[in-house]
Amino acid sequence: MSLDRGEKRLEKVEEVLSFYGCDGVEEKISKIGEYIRLVLKWRKWGQLTSASDMDSMETTVCESLGILSVLDHEGNLVVADLGSGGGILGIPLGIACEKWGINLLESSSRKCAFLAEVVGVLELENVSIKFARVEGTGSVGAYPIVISRAFGKFKEIIPEVFAILEGGGIYVTLKGTDAEKEIRESMSEIMRYGFEFEKIVTPSHFEKLGEEPSCSLVLLRKL
Prior knowledge:
- The chain is of the alpha/beta class.
- The protein contains eight helices and seven strands; from the N terminus they run H-H-H-E-H-E-H-E-E-H-E-H-E-H-E.
- The chain is globular, with a radius of gyration of 17 Å.
């Protein structure tokens, strides 16, 4: 798979992938570009994202890749993307991190159909899709790492994360730049479910791009 001539080159994504030490950047850029085109094509049908053009999607993908600030892209990690939606978090990471096993957990049949199309078209053998409602049941299994993006406030999501995160496991969620306030407001719920707040991290690629941070990463550990 290669970029057609005349297509917009995802220069920021390329910089971010290179910054985090990913290899095979050319092929990965091509796959991410194809993923973005599929999202933009089907976004209204599947209610996939509010982003409506290539530039805004590129920014969104770069934010998602910011998780590589705290997780090793070369590690053999098993990761669950909770509330995957259109795969805005899990698909770019699945492309960037070929050694990861990524499980996209989604409760919408339409979004699952879209994700299945993407995984097939891009031949992402390390990405699987699970159509399930978590809702505190733990029916989708347990994972050592859970990630999420824009999946709700901590008070709402902590019970669901608790149900699928292994003891000692890490939860990493992509939040806005005001995450510290939400952590303070949710600390009693975090502690009640046996989580330990570890840290808030600004993805390190923003400095590389010379941009103001537009998001942050919150890390919790299940005791």
